[in-house]
Write a structure and sequence with these properties.
- The protein is mainly α.
- It has a single domain (2-145), classed as Four Helix Bundle (Hemerythrin (Met), subunit A), CATH 1.20.120.
- The chain is 65% helix and 7% strand.
- The protein contains five helices and two strands.
- It has helices at 2-25, 31-52, 66-86, 107-129, 141-145; strands at residues 92-96, 102-106.
- The chain has a two-stranded antiparallel sheet with strand order 1-2.
- α1 (2-25) packs antiparallel against α3 (66-86), α2 packs parallel to α3 (66-86) and α2 (31-52) packs antiparallel against α4 (107-129).
- The two termini are 21 Å apart.
- 28% of the residues are buried.
Length: 146
């Protein structure tokens, strides 16, 4: 399981950087693309804080400058690697969602959610980049592992 999640998040980090690079190089970046990508990064941080039992000040609707996004992606990725290396994937995490409701979820389900959530939103951002970059980033997992 550990090796599986390592590969999934190596891919995710690779794909996140490709999309961010395209956003930075785009002739025009829709504000909505920045909002969606910021949401992806903020959600990742919020989940990591939940896993680590840390209080977060971030909101799901935070909007980051593209220059800050790279730094945040690197910080999040380093913390995800620590979770994968050090946490029990079956550990139950109790947390409160952004609406104030209380839940418990095991770490492997949270990690799966993070990977799928980022993939979904990368697709939205890439769609918004269409016609504003020379070549759209290809971020499919199979292209990463080839």
């Amino acid at each position: 399981m550990k090796e599986y999640f390592k590969q999934i998040f190596e891919h995710e980090h690779w794909a996140n950087l490709k999309v961010l690079e395209s956003m930075i190089c785009a002739s025009e970046t829709h504000q909505r693309a920045i909002e969606i990508y910021s949401h992806t990064i903020a959600a990742q941080r919020i989940w990591l804080d939940r896993i680590n039992g840390d209080k977060t000040e971030l909101k799901l609707c935070e909007v980051f400058d593209t220059k800050i996004m790279l730094e945040l992606l690197e910080i999040n990725y380093a913390d995800i690697k620590k979770v994968i290396d050090n946490q029990d994937f079956e550990q139950l995490i109790a947390y409160q969602n952004s609406s104030g409701q209380h839940y418990t979820t095991i770490i492997k389900q949270i990690l799966s959610h993070l990977a799928l959530h980022a993939s979904y939103h990368r697709g939205q951002v890439v769609l918004l980049l269409k016609d504003h970059v020379d070549t759209l980033p290809i971020t499919d997992f199979i292209f990463y592992v080839r």
